[in-house]
Amino acid sequence: MTTTFADQPLEDQIAQWRAYLRRRQAVHTRDVEELEGHLRDQLTALTESGLAADEAFLVAVKRMGNLDALSREFARAHSERLWKQLVVAPEAEAPADTSRTEILVVLSLAVAAGLAVKLPALFGFPLSPQENVPSFYFRNASLFVLPLLTIYFLWKRGTGMATGLWLALPFAAGAVFANVFPFHNPGRLDNFPEGSDTQVLTVLHLPIALWLMAVGVAYVGGRWLSSGRRMDFVRFSGELAIYYVLIALGGGVVTAFTFMMFSAIDMNPEWFVGPWLIPCGAAGAVIIGSWLVEAKQSVIENMAPVLTRLFTPLFTILLLAFLATMAWTGNPINVKREVLIGFDLLLAVVVGLVLYAASARDPQAPPDFFDGLQLVLVIAALAVDVVALAAIAARISEFGFTPNRVAALGENLILLVNLAWTAWIYASFVRHRGSFADLEKWQIAYLPVYAIWAALVVIAFPPLFGYR
Amino acid sequence: MDMSKDLVAASATPLVLAILAEGDSYGYAIIKRVAELSGGHLQWTDGMLYPVLHRLERQGYVAAKWSASENGRKRKYYRITKEGRAQLAAQREQWKAVDGTLRGIWMQACTV
Fold it and tell me: Among A25, A51, A82, where does a domain finish?
């Protein structure tokens, strides 16, 4: 008895059958081997009893039974196999050593990010649990982690040195603009948000600018003109945000247990949690989260589109209820800094909902109920935006320009333009006059606008407003 | 004779355990033994045996080991465990009870 059959067509047929079986998630490689052994035993017995090879194959396969039913039975015997395993089971096609190298690279970058946060302490900017965090950390928050994340993507995509050097430029510029300006700060260890307004704007806008200009370019492997790759970056950003929140929740649990357990033995772990665990963990988690998103791309359902489906109706109701209440009571928007930022964020969330709905949608599908809902959402957001704009404009004409009002005004205008055109494209799509791909193209083409505006706020606002 | 699916499924566990109680075996041989014992009445779709074996392995009634077969291929051999023997004994009692009950009522039907 031999293991293989001399008959080459028969071997081909067996190989085909094996490949077909291997595609089933519930049937693992070892099971396929076991079943193939059975098939071969059966084939040997049948050919020995006088059947031709192809006849024997037909009979043996028929006796093996329906593969769908079989894989269902396997799934019932091993129900855990239907839960795709993320970290522990890498794709079978990927060679094991590359994924091991990747884990090493990711871990060292994460550790480097954690240590980077501690670096300024050596130069006189200590983090201590008793005092407020120096504003230095807020201004430079993105510079601790994003360069390392950029390095990860440069390595992962195998991008050339030239691109890598170009990408050092935005970081260098960011470091300069975040630190050379003489912001009006009350003391070195100031109470951060109380300081200069333009400094707060830098803190908020520098990460956005660097995220889009440096991490984004590294993510797309330098091909930032390709709209498909840009959409991937948008998807990546959303998934990373979700992963980051999940990791942060886990981190919160670890922190709570650290406090509980060490307090129980009369030790105060504050010196460790405040200056070490939280900042280093927060930095490292960005790298780890990015790696998880990269690794799971093909493994698990993406979460951002699911959340989009869930929250689009809720946000639509919220916006409509808000507009109705405002129309009913006549209460104007109270223009404070938090309120302005809040409304900008709201509009950004609406753009995000549109973007992620677009990212998961089949562009060829005809308009459905959900598209109508999105259109209502966009129009309601437009109405809210106009109201917010009117409030800001009134405030400016009454009390003059401040950095916050101008920044809020600019962001509102940018989002207004985006939403207005989005509404137009959506309306024509819902009325079967246009294609959904236009919407995707528009959103993708608009991304650089955010980056440029964020950079502008970081670079031009502080001198423009006298570092107030 | 076509046996109902449920009956085939219900009898699979005691049958496989009983065959393994005779001695260690592997999938293809177990199927052959089933056909032999039932005189061809009990026709399993061959593939379906394996999920049954894997389930028994999980439950700890059988243990499996990969080793080389006589033709050089690696083959997964199954062996019944102590728990498996206990389970077999329990199932045997249950089947006896079912068999006895049915016999009783069918004997009556014959004598009426």
Answer: A82
